[in-house]
């Protein structure tokens, strides 16, 4: 979708960085798993298209085993790829594998290339002639880690990330990696518009059988919208979700979500049969309403959430035929 810059600034999000948290995907890689690409998160889900610039730059915090997939397919669903592992073998090696079961990956010793609590910045560049260049940036300069040429190059269309072998990761992509959506004649404005996005898709992984009826610090299981520079300010926001059931929204008293004072909404609870609202850690729902089949595994469903100073919370579902209220409830405390 294409949006004019001016619109962009008024109506859409301006983002200067995107953070993605990847959970450990287990003891798996392209050496043993032919469908390893299914374990990757595609940057295109976040509206980042590094293939256009043939490079990707990111900062990562992970103890070891940060993987990048350079794929022949836009959606990563291809057996034709390069898999790069930074800090493999317990943060000892970095390697580049060309395909599944590639027994002779390009491998070099890179002790402590990653750090559990340290942010490391990397840039990966490639060309259609088959060169792949990986460099690490630090205060003392830029160090080339890998510089290779593949004699049978592949045309890279998609880029994915994941962490594995017991490692979780926090990845930060700055706006320069993102796609340009706005254009304007005025130079100053288009400078800002380089970072205009018209929508952001966030992939959330199953956080397990936890909710505010079960654990007091459930807020630690939420993805923080402020990390995406989404700061609902008008006491309302619109969100589309594609999920089979159990889509949770936390309305927290704290900017960083670290507060026991919150509302938890669960859309499509009980196997997609009901929608509930909870206040704080509690075994009781303050609202529970029947909404059979409200979410769809395959289609986006759009909801509108709003809240008012008098404690009224409203959830509406937007459908093409009839926009309908799911619930409206007023908290008297
Ligand atoms: C949410 O983001 C804020 C600001 O970036 C940060 O201080 C806080 O720790 C984050 N909270 C969680 C639960 O990730
Ligand atoms: C929710 O938690 C906050 C903070 O602990 C507390 O001040 C408030 O009274 C609680 N509200 C309800 C309805 O339990
Ligand atoms: C929920 O909906 C499913 C069909 O989607 C149905 O089989 C089931 O009995 C309903 N009730 C519960 C509590 O899961
Ligand atoms: C999903 O959307 C398509 C196209 O808009 C429509 O034909 C289909 O019926 C929808 N499926 C569901 C489960 O709502
Ligand atoms: C929730 O309802 C939608 C629409 O009927 C359906 O496509 C989806 O499979 C349901 N999810 C579950 C877990 O039943």
Automatic annotation (TrEMBL):
The keyword Signal appears for this protein: yes
InterPro entries: Methyltransf_FA (IPR022041)
Keywords: Signal
Coiled-coil blocks: none
Keyword Oxidoreductase: no
Boundaries of every Farnesoic acid O-methyl transferase domain copy: 51-175, 234-331
Secretion signal span: 1-20
Protein name (database record): Farnesoic acid O-methyl transferase domain-containing protein
Lineage: Eukaryota, Metazoa, Spiralia, Lophotrochozoa, Mollusca
């Amino acid at each position: 979708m294409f949006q004019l810059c001016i619109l962009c600034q008024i109506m859409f999000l301006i983002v200067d960085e995107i953070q993605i948290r990847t959970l450990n995907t287990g003891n798996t890689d392209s050496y043993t798993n032919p469908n390893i690409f299914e374990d990757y998160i595609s940057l295109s889900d976040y509206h980042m298209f590094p293939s256009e610039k043939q490079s990707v730059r990111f900062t990562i915090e992970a103890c070891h085993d940060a993987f990048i997939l350079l794929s022949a397919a836009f959606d990563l669903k291809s057996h034709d790829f390069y898999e790069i592992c930074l800090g493999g073998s317990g943060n000892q090696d970095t390697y580049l594998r060309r395909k599944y079961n590639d027994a002779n990956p390009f491998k070099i010793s890179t002790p402590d290339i990653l750090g559990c609590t340290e942010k490391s910045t990397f840039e990966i560049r490639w060309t259609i002639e088959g060169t792949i260049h990986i460099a690490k940036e630090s205060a003392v300069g830029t160090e080339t880690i890998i510089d290779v040429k593949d004699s049978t190059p592949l045309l890279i269309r998609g880029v994915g990330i994941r962490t594995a072998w017991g490692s979780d990761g926090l990845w930060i992509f700055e706006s320069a990696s993102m796609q340009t959506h706005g254009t304007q004649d005025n130079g100053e404005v288009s400078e800002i518009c380089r970072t205009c996005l018209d929508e952001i898709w966030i992939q959330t992984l199953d956080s397990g059988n936890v909710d505010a009826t079960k654990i007091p610090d459930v807020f630690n299981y939420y993805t923080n919208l402020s990390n995406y520079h989404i700061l609902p300010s008008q006491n309302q926001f619109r969100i589309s979700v594609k999920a089979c059931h159990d889509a949770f929204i936390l309305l927290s008293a704290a900017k960083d979500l670290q507060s026991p004072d919150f509302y938890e909404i669960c859309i499509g609870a009980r196997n997609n049969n009901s929608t509930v609202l909870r206040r704080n850690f509690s075994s009781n729902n303050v609202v529970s309403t029947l909404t059979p089949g409200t979410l769809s595994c395959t289609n986006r469903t759009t909801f509108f959430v709003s809240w008012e100073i008098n404690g009224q919370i409203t959830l509406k579902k937007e459908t093409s035929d009839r926009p309908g209220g799911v619930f409206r409830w007023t908290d008297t405390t």
